[in-house]
């Protein structure tokens, strides 16, 4: 009974998207999702902005920050050995970091691991783990996140 319990993240299947799922029945709007996250004791952070930047520009994100509709955004993430971070993605993360600072929001991030090779890669490359620990500690120190469902 003294062991810490791990709670898994829920992931959507690859084939679920706006085009083949009913928006009305399958997808919640941003404000509802943010409300659920906050009610559960978490913070709502935008992930992987670099991949949606063409449809969700920085001005839109700044508006969401100023309206307190998001708590933060991911500024650090990495790819495994075969998916190295390119220069454009690094620049996008810098733009997001600057916006987070400007709007006094919460920076988040971590390794982006999906396959076994990613876990192997990150187990030997400690710099990303160090950045992740630092971001996590910052979140704990600056917010009232509920740690009951965490192994921290």
The sequence of SSEs as H and E is HHEHEHEHH
Mean pLDDT: 74
Strand content: 5-15%
Give the overall form: globular
Molecular structure report:
The chain has 152 residues and is mainly alpha-helical. It has one domain. 43% of the residues lie in helices and 10% in strands. A three-stranded parallel β-sheet has the order 1-2-3. Strand 1, helix 3 and strand 2 (72-78) form a beta-alpha-beta unit.
Would you kindly provide a brief summary of this structure?
With 152 residues, the protein is mostly helical. 43% of the residues lie in helices and 10% in strands. It has one domain (23-149).
Top keywords for this entry?
152 residues, mainly alpha, three-stranded parallel β-sheet, 6 helices, 43% helix
Give the helix/strand layout.
Layout lengths: L22 H4 L3 H10 L5 E2 L11 H9 L5 E7 L8 H17 L2 E6 L4 H9 L1 H17 L10
Helix pairs in contact: 3-4
